[in-house]
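Worked Example 4.2. Consider the chain below.
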Amino acid sequence: MKKVFIHLGLPKTGSSYLQHIFAKNSALYNQHGLIYKDFSNNFSAVNKNSPTNGNAGKIANSLIGNFSLINKSNNPTKVKQDIKIENFQYLDDFFNTLDKNKDYNHLISSESFSRCTPDSLKYFFNIISKNFECVLVAFVRNPVDQIISNYYQRLKHEKYTKSFNVYYPSAILWVKRMYNLLISFRQNIILFNYDVRKNNLINCFDNLIFNKLISTSFNKIVNPSPNYHQSEIIRLASNVGIPFRVTDAINYIENNNNEGNQNKKFLIPKSISEEIHKALSYEIKEINNILSMDEQIYLSTDNYSDKKMETLFTKSDLDFLSNSAKDYYDTFPNINKRLSSYNLYPGLPANFNVLDYILLNPDVAASNMDPIEHYLCYGRYEYRRYNRIKELNIGKLEHLKTNSRLYRRFYNRFILKLKLIWHKFISK
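Applying the procedure from the previous section yields the following structure tokens:
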């Protein structure tokens, strides 16, 4: 009996790379008895050396969005009639292809399959199994690294600017759902560990389908996630600019070689890593029962620490962000005029740069507070940088000498706020 291989492309497990190779080799596969048909009409992107979404995205999306309609039929033998009645054209095209090519093996691939419910995918699986042996294939990886990588990808493509601490609890549920989908097919699925196989992903499919290596390698087309430094640029550009500036940030980080010490891997606190591992311990155990012994997922937190990571923007980064932030900068009325009056007060340095203060302190931009007022009330007491030139705002020892008493600090803040209110009033 011929086979239908369904690649469940879990996000951040090399799916874009594999789907690019599949598309490039589709004619060669056909010569060896395997059909990889372009059901999603996106092979043209391959010819432009751009990442593709596999050949079955629309098929998978039909299952996701219309399973309730498909499931109306209690008789699987009538499924084709149901599909035509409900006008599921992509599923209909797929089943017609199977009918016309019963002497061939078939391969379909999409990340969207990983978003199917177990019931919808089992229904699809059972229909195919009437005439073909159906085999599911997927790659899994360390869930912590997968969550981190997907977080960066969301920053890049979805203008997601929330912190990782806000993101990871929902991501745990996302991974849990995907793993339970794989576990529900434990008797009919073949799993590979991405972390072990990432240097020869395509070889896994060649050996599985053809029992030999036949795929021709091409330039590696992937959909990379931004690193820690790059993600901070995206987040900051989102916070201080208008929404479309995120696209400019993505183009900037892809076309500029930053200093080597900026390209740091994101290190989450060990406590969060342990929390993720604990929440997914049952699923990992079940996944390991499907994986071969040499491809087990190990729950190690040795690579994580509680050391806080800091981003030091290069001059080119700040120049780019300055241009991106001009819209934000212009929202402060008469800011240059007011600067001259604020310079009369002790505490605001002569070389204070409003825009640099925003860029060097992203939380100030996020707070929507007047940056000058923020610095005078809080920033100078927290030794905030106010100029991209690397120098201390004020000597720490000198600061301690002049503000040795706690009551004096609060008194100065109270008086300063009164002065700020007065100057805002007279400047109107």
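Residues 67-74, 76-87, 390-405 have pLDDT under 50 and may be disordered. The longest strand covers residues 133-140. Compare this with Example 4.1 before moving on.
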